[in-house]
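#help-structures
NK: newbie question, is this the right format to request a structure? protein is UDP-N-acetylmuramoyl-L-alanyl-D-glutamate--2,6-diaminopimelate ligase
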Amino acid sequence: MEKGDGMNLQQLIEVLPEYKIINKDIDSEITSVEIDSREIIAGSLFICIEGYTVDGHDYVETAVKNGAVAIISEKKLSIQDVPIILVPDTKRALPLLANNFYAHPSQRFRLIGVTGTNGKTSVSHYINEILRKTGQKTGLIGTIEMKINETSYPVKNTTPDALFLQKSFNKMNDAGAETVTMEVSSHALDLGRVHGSDFDIAVFTNLSQDHLDFHGTMDNYLVAKSLLFSQLGNTYNTNRPKFAIINNDDKNSDFLKRVSAQPILTYGIHTPSTFQAYNIQYGSTGVSFDMQTPEGNISINSHLMGEFSVYNMLAAATCTYACGIPLESIQRALEKMDSVKGRFQPIANTKEIGVIVDYAHTPDSLKNVLKTIKQFCNGKIHVVVGCGGDRDRTKRPLMAQAACELADLAIFTSDNPRSEDPAQILNDMTTDLAYSNFKVIEDRESAIRDAIKNATANDIVLIAGKGHETYQILGNQTIDFDDAKIAAKYLEKY
Ligand SMILES: CC(=O)N[C@H]1[C@@H](OP(=O)(O)OP(=O)(O)OC[C@H]2O[C@@H](n3ccc(=O)[nH]c3=O)[C@H](O)[C@@H]2O)O[C@H](CO)[C@@H](O)[C@@H]1O[C@H](C)C(=O)N[C@@H](C)C(=O)N[C@H](CCC(=O)O)C(=O)O
Ligand SMILES: Nc1ncnc2c1ncn2[C@@H]1O[C@H](COP(=O)(O)OP(=O)(O)OP(=O)(O)O)[C@@H](O)[C@H]1O
Ligand SMILES: N[C@H](CCC[C@H](N)C(=O)O)C(=O)O
Ligand SMILES: [Mg+2]
């Protein structure tokens, strides 16, 4: 059988450091490894995962009914028809088993991981785009999509669980991928979703407040991010060169350098770095700058906007240089680079106003985007923004403050309220706000309509927080919602 098509159970579980077999002998052939009872096929191995919502151990009977021939469990189970392999921790067993089943797919291509609070999606798309333009076969995994060469696949998470990840790597192998670039979220690092993935290059964008609901403190958040660097090159001893690529202007850069045992390349604007930008000119249609590199200087004339885009281009240039791409190819690709969907995305219209859809959903990214707009806006700045429910509550007042400080008028509205009361989220944003240049319109479509209706010539309307998302999560309901389409609708109307 081909890798990923099947494996003997005994051989499959050999990678587990500790297990106990209950019920029967384990001489069966495993056709697939699954963590979801609904995905089971005849011959599957079902791994029970205790989740945040439900416990996979409760689905063992369904799994067996659906064809599972063996179970990996961390709890005693009453079922007797199939072998049960009892392990201390199924979440730690999962990446080991998935890796073994798919024959360690990430050893067969260069794997690049991009982490940081903001810019992961942008930087990983730029890296992938530069590599594609040199003719490489590539894979890409992140917030918007998974891509194998030019084919796009939907994703649920920025960084998927270990099973989906290894399965995807296997598919990328089959498509001949030479380099795979992926976003690595702090959740994924903390939860071990990337255990067993053989990273060759780790890229750090920046660290600012987000996800304190999950990590508790900024120190914990930094430690989670740093795992990508401490694990870099430790998984398997492949011969590919390893690099840690670090933003020298971020105050956590020294810590990340200490954490990494691999060679380091740096980038920055304000601090001497391996790749450094200077002579930066910010225009209303793009940014241009000179980039100092170990092999001389290159000039970049880009239609991407703002200082944050300079950082993202520096990160992508440093990373692709580490992959051996010639500087001229990097320069050519950066000059042609379009913005990623929902990242500083202009909405074309015949009015004299500018409308921009952006994914800023942290205090820092909102500040950066508004500062960028301020550099070229000759009229008033209107911002429509909300905060996600079931996410870091402490970022809410900070986002509201950034909006009022840097825009002329802020309209606070709903993002994805999820299980929370939208009015309460808006309350968290505005209760202690020491500004009056804002209004609250809970319904997002009405908020966008209001902003566009009231904008006059030379004004800019920034619609922030949801970027590429084509849905809105209200309670248990997910409705169609696309900021770009709604904006276009009202630009047509008014
Ligand atoms: C909080 C969190 O991380 N949740 C993730 C988790 O879901 P969960 O723990 O609720 O899973 P669950 O529904 O309880 O299911 C437990 C187990 O039972 C199984 N099950 C369930 C039902 C059934 O009928 N049969 C069955 O076997 C499930 O397949 C699973 O194995 O496991 C799921 C599968 O891997 C993830 O999709 C899900 O991410 C959710 C969607 C999520 O929103 N996560 C966010 C917090 C997140 O991880 N975000 C980061 C990006 C952050 C950033 O911007 O940097 C990310 O990487 O996406
Ligand atoms: N280098 C950067 N520094 C600060 N802000 C940035 C940077 N790059 C992008 N941004 C802002 O952050 C938003 C999100 O960018 P992007 O999607 O690239 O980040 P991300 O890290 O992938 O986010 P997520 O954690 O949600 O996946 C952009 O829309 C922009 O407003
Ligand atoms: N990856 C981020 C995305 C936030 C996007 C924003 N629209 C929201 O829903 O809060 C998160 O899960 O926190
Ligand atoms: Mg992302």
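mod (FA): yep, format's fine, and the tokens are attached above. The two ends are 62 Å apart (CA to CA).
NK: thank you!
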